[in-house]
Amino acid sequence: MDPLRQHILVVDDDPDQLSTMCELLRGGGFDAEGVPNGARMRDALARGPCDLVLLDLRLQSEDGMSIARELRRTSSLPIVMVSGASDDLDRILLLELAADDFITKPFIPRELLARVRAVLRRTRVLVESAAAEPSSPPPPPPPPAAGPVLRFGTWELRLGARELVDQRGIPCELTQGEFRLLEALMKQPHRVWTRDQLIEQTRSLEAEVFDRTIDVLILRLRRKIEPNPKHPQYICTERGLGYVFAAKVTPG
Q: 209: closest CA among 78, 77, 118?
């Protein structure tokens, strides 16, 4: 294994599909290791780290969705799911609960490589942002009255302090892109935003912002703030149009 090349672990029980994906990834400049099931995946991860898991949804021996949830509970590894064209509901659920992106079979080689690279770029941006934080303990947050405040549900968005806190005053960690997106949605609740409009709100903060990035940011926000991310009550989807902040917002 070349330590300078990013390592992708591919999980698929179709030998031909597994071989094809590994060869595509190697041709795209990655180290790729293929395994046929969840047990072999766990063995591979126990032997050494990888940079991303490419996981087939429809495994015969073990449900790919369960494996993705397990990975999300136990690690922060990026996950790209491979699904069939008929798996629309499962893909939505996976994006909301576990996966970072998905690709639908049959796919063209360039799409597979593009999605893997995009997820790795987003992950790198998050890691570098976290590494840039000072090692010393941060100063205590300002009191709730410092700066404008927007409240919804059990949450309080402090615009001056650039933080989101729960009803106990405990901060919820948000990336800059997530904060800017939530701020834009909350400042104009009940307005339907298109993806292009939301891209303009986050363009200066994300390395590469495009419509799938917006979808991923929305899904991550839902995981953090929604009582039930599968049935969002704050950030709702307007099918064919975009997103809307549907909750009551109270300025403070």
A: 118
